[in-house]
Sequence to fold (713 residues):
Amino acid sequence: MKQSRRDFLKTIGISGAALAGLKPKKALAAPKNILSDERMGVLVDTTVCIGCRKCEWACKVSHDLPTSPIDEYEDRSVFSEMRRPTINALTVVNEYENSKNPNIPIDVKVNCMHCDHPACVSACIVGALSKQESGAVIWDSSKCIGCRYCMVACPFQIPAYEYNTAFQPDILKCDFCNDRTLEGKIPACVEICPVEAMTYGKRYKILELAYKKISREPDKYIDHVFGEHEAGGTSWVYIAGKDFADLDFPDVGNKPMPGTSESIQHAIFAYFVPPFALYALLGGIMWLSKSNHENEEK
Amino acid sequence: MEESLNPTPISKKFLTPGVIVLILIALNGIIFLMVRFLGGLGSMTNLDNQYPWGLWIAIDVAVGVALASGGFTTAALGHVMHREYFHPIIRPALLTAMLGYTFVAFGVVVDIGRPYFVWHPLIYWNSNSALFEVGICVMTYITVLYIEFLPIVTERFIGRVNMPGILSSFNKPVDWILKILDRGLSKVMFAFIIAGVVLSCLHQSSLGTLMIIAGPKMHPLWQTPILPLLFLLSAIAVGFPMVIFESLIASRSLGLKIERKILSKLSNYVAPILGVYLAFKIGDMVIRETFVYLTEFSVESILFIIEVVIGVVVPLRMFLSRTVRNSMPGIFIASALVIFGVVMNRINNFITAYTPAYSLGKTYFPSIGEISVTVGFAALVILLYRALVMIFPVISTPSKETASKSKYAIRGAFK
Fold:
């Protein structure tokens, strides 16, 4: 079976084009990831929070999750160990000792930070997670394949997975009450908070407020707004009277989490040049080594 | 007349005591699989919100892909660089790659929560995701591997189509279709072979990109921006040792003569590739100054040292020695060590190095069920390999008849 050089080149071209067809263009392929200047945010003042856990109850009610009656949330024994968001609780409050004033412990509400450059959105194999114009990072059940790569990627360890569901397990995480905010309501947890530990508003205004609070009472707060720069910035930001590391905030650095992996991905697929170049190179080697081989045989 | 090597189906009894043991191991895995599909992942794995990925991603997927690299490395050597001398090892390597990737796909289907949506990446794209690229490349590459295997199927059945009963009237048309397929394939096969090598390079490296996004959750000994390069180099490095390893085992198990010369010659290539891999691994450690972590006594530092010393340095030294390269026990042990090193590397990258931001006092160790499924899949791969080399002309055996089959001996690659 002889094959002419021309056939060879023709087939290389066709298969190269076929290979290219498999690779999507970036504009079409990336999930929604809007970074609107008008995006919303929440300022959590951990010095105000009293740990009443009403936000936990309100969150469950507004997300149709099973919950016990609201009175039972007054039980403070749950604070004995650290809790993390689960499939049944998209937000949880943890309590820490206050060395300045032992009578008033520090309570920290934990939920999705709604990163400006979310690792989960970058990682998701099917683009089931997306960053909305409102700032919310939300999950689309119709796309998800349940691979849990978002959980591997998230620096704050937020997404939870329904491990004991055999059919159609979900990823659950705080969605910034996306359905409510689209209707013009404010997030359920912010609405119910009896002491106004949380302030909902445009993110840039929230940051202004945070610094105003800190400058007004410099003895009460440390001069750091967690989330202003962390992981490239988050929609939810925190102020506290104690170092954030003592309150179990992770050290995630100030660079956007997807930075390195996305630059590698985009370098390998820069206009598909590297894969094509490799294909052409191998084709060239094959061609040359073939002629060498034939010459040897003659 | 000189003896020539031609691929032939191996005629031997399929069932042996060893095979029965493998069947039992496979059945045990299948039983646990049923539990997983009836009760969800939580019913039989130790995975949780802290440790979302475990043994199945590390072994079934990452190790599976790495150890199947014999397929593209031998294709590059034998077909692209046209070293015809090595052709007898290409088909067994191709079969291993085909089976290996098939079970990588099974591994993914078992691990993801919604297996029936495994095709979603084909329609929902996220080009920012390393996992998306791995998924697309692996799906495409599996297709390419099956196409590369097709000529072996046509060779087996052309002129021998013999269906029973009513179907026998279709014997002729089927034979005719096989012949057309065969002729068409041999014209375009080289394009698939190159595509296979390109796709392998792409996803072998992207598999390394996977854990980069985990950022500070990965131990600094492994977390590096050159992870994709290290994954690619280690995959290339383990390709030939894997071919040597399984060739020696298959010869032993099937009672065949060992192709000493070919395997010895193949082992010449191992040391340079392994050396480059080691150089990058050490260089990366020096540049990022992560060697400071080796001074602390921890699980991570011990496993890192085992991975690099026993899995890379020792076999590198062995493959540099001519005496070792000429001795079959020598290259068997050295190859086994390279394989061990790559397996350790993948386990370390996906399990050892991963520390959740909040572990809540838990550490991950695979459950009996997870181990059973992984071991069961490995047993199934071996069983299928054994069955397929008995059905199809995969393994080359010495035969006196020359030339008669040469049309089929090397298919496609620019014959």
